[in-house]
Amino acid sequence: MRILVVDDEAEIVRLVKGYLEQAGHTVLTAYNGETAIQTLRREQPDLLVLDLMLPDRDGWDVTRALRADPLFEKLPIIMLTARAEDADKIIGLELGADDYMTKPFNPREVVARVKALQRRIDFEQKPVTTVLRSGALTLDLNQHQFTLDGDIIELTPTEFKLLETLMRNPGYTYSREELLEKALGYSYEGLGRTLDTHIRNLRRKIEPDTTEPTYIQTVYGIGYRFRRES
């Protein structure tokens, strides 16, 4: 990926740039919001790592401008900031940031977050399927309807989205955080137990035997995957 890293602290830019380049990415850099926007328009990178507290246009203003521009409305954005308040995080995500990291951070985590976003991009660019099937299960995305052996089974919106995410990529093991991010839109920190409850309820509705699940399999220590049919 071609990644633009924007931060007014040169040492942070150097560090993040080095780790991303070691991971095989091409890295562009900027040190303020205005230069960042100019670089984005000129180079059109695949992903933006953006500091919130910039000397001219802050990260919120840059994100707002990008999301209003059809050329960049879907550009993945990871926001960096020294401000750890939940309100700041919520504002950034609502403006359109895809992920949020607070300083100080481990640059390896930036690489991991970029990798997770890259997987999501690849996932979303797969050809769209409107009906997903596996064994006795059928998930109709247009009708928003789930059937088991031809019988309609009511799912909550969260259960439906979780099942859709799992069925779209059978055999792939999702961590709890990744599954929440893909199914519900962005990272839900600390909601692993909530996910487990949703999965347990979903299994009650779709599994022949919840003690030995056929469809939604637990990968201990990691997360969940949907069975891959032979």
Describe this structure in words.
By secondary structure, this protein is an alpha/beta fold. Helix content is 42%, strand content 21%. The strands form 3 sheets. The protein has a 5-stranded parallel β-sheet, with helices on both faces. Strands 6-7-8-9 form a 4-stranded antiparallel β-sheet, with helices on one face. Helix 3 links the parallel strand 3 and strand 4. The two termini are 33 Å apart. The mean pLDDT is 87.
Shape: elongated
| DSSP E strands, number | 12
Radius of gyration over alpha carbons? 20 Å
Strand order of the largest sheet: 2-1-3-4-5
Question: Any low-confidence stretches, pLDDT <50, length ≥5?
Answer: none
Please summarize the sheet with the most strands: 5 strands, parallel
The H/E string reads EHEHEHEHEHEEEEHEHHEE
- Helical fraction equals 40-55%
Mean pLDDT: 87
Number of helices: 8
Note the gap between the termini. 33 Å
Estimated structural class: alpha/beta
Strand content range: 15-25%
